[in-house]
Design brief:
single chain; Rossmann fold; alpha/beta; 15 strands; 2 domains
Amino acid sequence: MAESKQIKVVILDLDGVIYRGHTPIPGAQETAAWLSRNGYGTYYFTNNSTRSRESYVELLAGFGIEADAEHVVTSGSLTAHYFRDNGLLPATALVVGEGGLAEELKRAGVRVVRRRGSKPIGYVVVGMDREFTYRKLHEAQQAVLAGAKLIATNRDATYPVEGNVIPGGGSIVAAVATAAEQEPLLIGKPSSKAGELIVRHAGVAPGEALIVGDRLETDIEMGRRAGLWTCLVLTGISTEQEARATPEESRPHFIIESIAELPRLLERIKGGRPEDGAPTGGGP
């Protein structure tokens, strides 16, 4: 575990790690402050596309956590990167999603529309939309059938809130994909692109970064694909039993009860004693 002593960057998922719904997870504020005091580069990464990065900065501030937009990554901002990095601009996209997704795309130079018109539509971008309707489904379906490329910001079937789960963006993506009979290009987790983008921005190697998340199939899988260290918290969706039943190559390296235990885990890793973090797999 010698490599793990070099962890310099910590990537924190939001929903199920920092908060559930509108309620902060106990210890989240204290852990974020501890990471800052101890020199860890801290990034916040969510598959939720409903808010812009600046909106998430404000949300975190409401929980007593300091952050800036440069250290927040959303599936919406990743989708904007996709258009810029692949030379797809100028582009027109019919968006099924909320204001944060539209804002990130517009900022990147994408022409965002909500309904089909006389001009060709090159892309249909689908994310979490709590005002999803049959009309929106029909508009997206017809645009894809007319030749638009279908893009999904994420495929999370559920979304953790206080004491429960609600339908996630993946449920809406599934509806559009079924109606249009086209599988989407997936941008958010578990794609490795986000992890690669963050370590490049931070100027560290993949083995010097740890992602902390609550979902095996997104957070942990993304970290594994990107060559990061991975830690599952049990305050969101996935359980310890599910983690230990997962094939070793997809298993989290560490499991902790909640983000409140992260400082102790990092101290033990730094000291070469990661065993109390319940390691479940080999190195990245």
